[in-house]
Amino acid sequence: MKKILVLGASGLVGRALIDELVEGLDVYGTYTSNVTSLPHDKQFSLEVQHIDKMRELMDTVKPDVVISCLRGDYDHQLTFHEELAKSIKNQHTKVYYFSTTNVFDGDFSRPYTEADTPIAESEYGKFKMKCESMLQEMLGERAITIRIPMIWGKNSPRLNQIKESLKDEKVIEVFSNLVCNHHLDVLLAKQVRFMIENDVKGVFHLASIDRMMQSQFYEQILHQLGVEKSILEPRFFLDKEDVAYFQIESNREDIPRVLRYTNSDIISSLFQ
Ligand SMILES: NC(=O)c1ccc[n+]([C@@H]2O[C@H](COP(=O)([O-])OP(=O)(O)OC[C@H]3O[C@@H](n4cnc5c(N)ncnc54)[C@H](OP(=O)(O)O)[C@@H]3O)[C@@H](O)[C@H]2O)c1
Question: Are 190 and 172 in a shared domain?
Fold first, then answer.
């Protein structure tokens, strides 16, 4: 049975991954403050600055696949992933690295596919860009990059924030001219299972496949929550009227149609 180590298994993406992958795979995970649903002997507390502990863990578990869904200080994360790559340099282990739409946040004039070169402006985007290319340089085809947009889930900070705003009768600012895509934790996890089982390689953009303005997406979420009066306050992105894009698209054919999701699929699954 393939051994999978999920780094950051207690987070939004990590939790969905372990729930999806425990069926049929031997799953291990790390956390810092929130324990996971994995058995006691398959989860480990691990901070990104504790490199020796990471090396020990890699020696003990000897995973076939490492999935990184970590957060933490950027410099620490960069060193952590560099040392992780060194520790498996001469092994068969593959690393699936979660990156972000923000690697393109230096230019909002169009959507981006996997064939485009990242162009980040934010510190977050620049850090993710660096980490992606470092892993690809050190591990070659054994580094798989998964870029994702804003992630939703039944227990996600984004959905909880909307519920809080409704409770406190606070307005939510949204952009009426920003095309963005979204994803759902549990649907993303199904795509990752497919990727592991089919041994795909390279860079992947996993996100809703149709275009929707951010304000429309929020309107539909509120509709599902049964809210009649809109608490949305539409604004123009960067105070300009032109349509802007915070959107990743995929030009890859590897993921089958049945595992590609629209914004409506995401919203309906979120409220199922
Ligand atoms: N969520 C999104 O919308 C989104 C969008 C684009 C990209 N991403 C990327 O996808 C990955 C997963 O995101 P997520 O939303 O699932 O994150 P999350 O919910 O914040 O979870 C982060 C995970 O990392 C662990 N962690 C936090 N600080 C750490 C540290 N200093 N050392 C070691 N582990 C630490 C957390 O442990 P504890 O919970 O135990 O503290 C948790 O398991 C991240 O790399 C993120 O950049 C996320």
Answer: no
